[in-house]
């Protein structure tokens, strides 16, 4: 989905995990005003290591096997859509970094991990200091985000950008 008013916003990466919290199920990135979304096809080795999906999210292993993409494909696409950026922002820095380590990242290292080509920082760092500790709460209270689905990685990317802008008193009409 394209959001022209967010074209110049720094890239935001959001990853959701399986119930164990160890393996990615969905990934989205907001880059250059466009949100890209991928479902992650489970690797065979994950299925033998406590990989599970809750029914509440509506995902199943068979669905992810049908519509999901391989980690290496998603990582290649991620590199393409964030070309020119060495820093991505995210919500849940520790969890996102952990999930990204499951991707085939055999390229140049960075300071976060020897297996990633870009650094990842918490999106809350883009907000004024007084809001950083409660950034996710501010996102939930942001009237610009009421129509967005908090269970969608794509919508969470947009909500994070809109919240940073609102907290910095920058009004964007989308």
What's the SSE blueprint?
Blueprint: E1 12-17, E2 24-31, E3 34-39, H1 61-67, H2 71-81, E4 87-90, H3 93-100, E5 119-122, H4 129-132, H5 135-141, H6 153-167
Parallel strand pairs: 1-4, 4-5
Antiparallel strand pairs: 1-2, 2-3
Helix pairs in contact: 5-6
**Which outline best applies?**
globular
CATH topology type: Nucleotidyltransferase, domain 5
What's the N-to-C terminus distance? 12 Å
Largest sheet: 5 strands, mixed
Number of E strands: 5
Gyration radius, in Å: 16 Å
Uncertain runs are 106-113
Number of helices: 6
Work out the count of structural domains.
1
Tell me roughly what share of residues is in helical segments: 25-40%
Task: Provide an overview of this structure.
This protein has 174 residues and is α/β, with parallel strands linked by helices. It has one domain (4-167): 2-Layer Sandwich (Nucleotidyltransferase, domain 5). The chain has 6 helices and 5 strands. It has a 5-stranded mixed β-sheet, sandwiched between helices. The protein is globular and about 50 Å long. Residues 106-113 have low confidence and may be disordered.
Summarize, please.
It contains six helices and five strands, in the order βββααβαβααα.
Task: Give descriptors for this structure.
about 170 residues; alpha/beta; Nucleotidyltransferase, domain 5; 5-stranded mixed sheet; 6 helices; 5 strands; globular
